Amino acid sequence: MDFGIQGKIALVTAGSKGLGRGCAEALSAEGARVAICARTTAEVERTAQEIAAKTGHEVLAFTADMSKPGEIDRLLASVREAMGDPDILVCNAGGPPPGDFASTGLDAFGPALELSLMSSVRLTYGCVSAMKEKGWGRIVMITSVSVRQPIPYLILSNTARAGLAGFMKTVAREIADSGVTVNAALPGSHDTDRIRQTAVKRAEAAGRTLEEEMTESLKTINPMKRMGTPDEFGALVTFLCSKQAAFITGENVLADGGAYGGIL
Fold first, then answer.
1. b/e map of 208-239 (b: 16 or more CB within 10 Å)?
2. pLDDT reading at 114 higher than 90
3. How confident is residue 264, by pLDDT bands cut at 50, 70 and 90?
4. 0.85 cut: is pTM over it?
5. Whether pLDDT at 98 is above 80
6. Proportion of the chain above pLDDT 90, given as a percent
């Protein structure tokens, strides 16, 4: 199937590993001109080379920290200079530290919101105008199943992701007639470093080893009894960026192996 994004300029933030890398690989495989960023120059450059070797399409690497507004501004300026205005924007950022209400102080919320909420807000403000001028654009925000069902020991992430869902829905409806769609992809448990960090916290609370916690989690993590893969998640995000998804906007699309139990 031709997704209609060959030659489109796609920016994937926090794209050097995990779900971000999965998205970057899938977009590049469809012929998009992909830019990725991460905080560590050597790591993001290595990832860009690996994706390009796999897909046969050039991938450009940039260094930026999504928790720092000035670096987001510089990233967008650098991508425009090297490639042009993004047609596709995948907003991704590493999550804030795990913790519950009792262990999380008020001072932790500001940095968490800057990273997991405001980074996507800033990126959206930086890209929407050019997309509207072209009459075509795709924005996908990587949030979490916690938007539907808060996750224990992730109070900071739960708070930020829910706020981002409200922003996403509002913007999507306001610009729906412009040819630009805005959606969110909600990952459940995927095999990433982030999931393992959270498992460490749960293991400590339960008095188990990490291996014991992972074994127990896989029994109840979702009806499929397995974790998702970054490749599977990247395929979902790429579909949301396709011409076939032109009538989908303002949606929170779950990819959680059936873990969420609600009807809506």
1. eeeeebbeebeeebbeeeebbebebbbbbbbb
2. yes
3. confident
4. yes
5. yes
6. 80
Amino acid, res. 62: F
Give, in order, the Cα–Cα distances in Å from 191 to each of 44, 82, 214, 233: 19, 33, 11, 11
Would you state the pLDDT for residue 242? 98
CB 238 within 8 A of CB 26: yes
Question: Over 70: is that where the pLDDT of 193 sits?
Answer: no
Residues ≥6 apart with Cβ < 8 Å to 212: 203
Crossing angle of helices 69-82 and 119-134, in 10° steps, is 30
Q: Residue 162, exposed/middle/buried by CB under 10 A (0-12, 13-18, 19+)?
A: middle
Write out the two tokens for 178: 């412009």
> What is the distance between the alpha carbons of residues 114 and 67, in angstroms, rounded to a whole number?
6
Residue of 239, 141, 132, 140 whose CA lies nearest to 180: 132
Q: What's the mean per-residue pLDDT of the chain?
A: 93
- Cα–Cα distance, 34 to 10 (Å, whole number): 5
- Report the alpha-carbon distance of residue 146 to residue 177 in Å, rounded: 29
With tokens 């080893």, the residue in question is 209
The tokens of 221 are what? 């993590």
Question: How many CB atoms within 10 Å of residue 15?
Answer: 30
Provide the 10 A C-beta neighbour count for residue 206.
11
Beta strands of the chain (E only): which ranges?
Answer: 9-12, 33-38, 59-63, 88-91, 137-142, 180-187, 252-255
Give the model's pLDDT for residue 227: 87
Q: Is the pLDDT of residue 238 over 80?
A: yes
pLDDT of amino acid 190 = 81
Beta-carbon count within 10 A of 49 CB: 13
